[in-house]
Amino acid sequence: MVGYHGPGNGSKERGELPVWGLLAMRCPSCCADDDFVVDSRTTSEGRVVRRRRECRGCGKRFTSRERVEEITRLIVKKDRRLQPFSRQKVLDGIVTACQKRPVSIERIEIIVDDVEKRIRDEFDHEVPSVFIGEVVSEHLRDLDPVAYVRFASVYQAFTDVSQFLNELAPLMEKKEITDVR
Ligand SMILES: [Zn+2]
């Protein structure tokens, strides 16, 4: 039998890099790296973020698929129980807090990206659940006061009742809460 020199059984392409929404995407048509996100969807249980983008240079639209590298960390809840970190759970929590608020899913994805990045930077194994609550609260405080109070009260990010009331008071005084996008 003549030696068969077929294609090597080398590894298939696995060039999927984690992207934190910070790296510039290049337009496949004109190579400009100036685009904006039109639509953002998380698939595969939150591990792939699919973003529809529009190039500011030529106006063409393209899709980027960004694999969010799975991070394996254990969340330590207040009662000391451990739970594997779940991007989807964090996302769901923020989506709930932002219901009927002018906060786009793209903004929410950016918050979750930041939560993951900071967990990765600061913890090797176990992450206190309050850490996640604090990071998300920080973002929402600037983004939308209503979503912020909803989130922080549900996730008990306030250390005590007086702190909660302190945060609430200025919001109650505002006649109109300006929409922040
Ligand atoms: Zn272009």
Folded structure, characterized:
It is a single chain. The chain has 181 residues and is of the alpha+beta class. The chain folds into two domains: 21-68, no CATH class; 69-173. The protein contains five helices and six strands, in the order βββββααβααα. It has helices spanning 87-97, 105-122, 129-143, 145-154, 161-173; strands at 35-43, 48-55, 61-67, 74-76, 82-84, 126-128. The strands form two sheets. The chain has a three-stranded antiparallel β-sheet. Helix 1 crosses helix 2 (105-122), helix 2 runs antiparallel to helix 3 and helix 4 (145-154) runs antiparallel to helix 5 (161-173). The chain is flat and about 55 Å long. Mean pLDDT is 76; it is low at 1-22.
Number of domains: 2
- Proportion of residues in helical segments: 25-40%
- Gyration radius, in Å: 21 Å
Total number of beta strands: 6
The coarse silhouette is flat
Structural class: alpha+beta
Q: Classify the beta-strand content into a percent band.
A: 15-25%
Query: What is the N-to-C succession of helices and strands?
Result: EEEEEHHEHHH
The biggest sheet amounts to: 3 strands, antiparallel
Low-confidence stretches: 1-22
Strand order of the largest sheet: 1-2-3
User: What hetero molecules are in the model?
Assistant: zinc ion
Amino-to-carboxy terminus distance: 68 Å
Determine the mean pLDDT. 76
The tally of helices reads 5
